[in-house]
UniProtKB/TrEMBL annotation:
InterPro entries (alphabetical): Ig-like_fold, PapD-like_sf, Periplasmic_pilus_chap, Pili_assmbl_chaperone_N
Family annotation (Pfam families): PapD_N
Pili assembly chaperone N-terminal domain boundaries: 37-155
Signal peptide: none
The species this protein was found in: Limibacillus halophilus
SUPFAM superfamilies membership: PapD-like
Domain of life assignment: Bacteria
Entry protein name: Fimbrial chaperone protein
GO biological process: cell wall organization
GO CC annotations on file: outer membrane-bounded periplasmic space
Length: 264
């Protein structure tokens, strides 16, 4: 059960989900100095067959921008996310100044290739826009950030964004057998979708909708609902109408880009 603290965390998660829902194929961040940076891809993977992956930063603005890139281990539990310092995944280069209209490719390297623990390890890549005077200054605690952005990185798991649709379907079907979803009531009396991921890799849930007996679908969350890491349980706030699914109606979503039935 949740106490008052749980309710607060619940509302924070709702805010985060609303922000993430605004994201599509890539990130376009408008900065106060009339510059903007586009980041792609929006989800990264370092599989067992490769030691690194690439993150592309494009400056779409009319002035130079200074960027710092760091990687944190992503820990999810107790219905909140925590970012932890680590040293096994590094960014090269970690600091860069991108001229107006320019592009920079940052290499993310797994220095523990072949020595990592079994299963998928989740990380977050933090991309910070910092004042030009702050590049390379002292410790991270002495640098003031103007804009921060976070991109998920998964190491050691399968390539869930594989080009082959049949491969994506096989992986999604495997994950669906390990996803347990129920509609519950949170401590503040509002309905929520509780998802437990008993699989060995993450579930990225998007395009949640209710499908009626006539086959028509009503959107619940148009974009990204959120991530459920392997072995973790997450509750997502839902509209009040979701608690009264009519007989024959079902709850469907895209999980790792493949449509799956969550509740029937």
């Amino acid at each position: 059960m949740f106490g008052m603290n749980g309710s607060v965390k619940f509302r924070i998660r709702m805010f985060v989900i609303m922000v993430l829902t605004m994201i599509t194929f890539c990130y376009a961040i408008s900065l106060g100095n009339a510059a903007s940076v586009m980041i792609s891809p929006i989800s990264l993977n370092i599989g067992s067959e490769k030691p690194a992956t690439l993150l592309t930063l494009n400056n779409l603005g009319d002035s130079d921008i200074a960027i710092q890139v760091r990687i944190k281990r992503w820990v999810s539990g107790g219905f909140q996310d925590t970012l932890v310092d680590q040293s096994e995944i590094i960014a090269s280069p970690p600091y860069v100044v991108i001229p107006a209209g320019g592009r920079q490719i940052v290499r993310l390297v797994d220095t523990n290739r072949g020595q990592s623990s079994d299963g998928e390890m989740p990380y977050r890549v933090l991309v910070d826009e910092i004042p030009r005077s702050g590049v390379g200054e002292g410790s991270a605690g002495n640098v003031s950030f103007q804009m921060r952005y976070s991109v998920p990185l998964f190491v050691g798991g399968p390539e869930l964004n594989a080009a082959d649709p049949e491969q994506r379907q096989v992986l999604a079907n495997d994950l669906s057998r390990n996803l347990k979803t129920t509609v519950v009531t949170s401590s503040d009396g509002q309905p929520a979708l509780k998802v437990f991921n008993g699989g060995s890799y993450h579930a990225r849930i998007t395009k949640l909708r209710v499908r009626g007996v006539d086959g028509r679908a009503v959107p619940v969350a148009e974009g990204l609902l959120g991530y459920v890491l392997a072995g973790e349980e997450v509750q997502f706030p839902m509209p009040s109408a979701i608690s009264a699914l009519r007989p024959g109606a079902s709850l469907v979503a895209e999980v790792n880009s493949v449509e799956l039935l969550l509740i029937n």
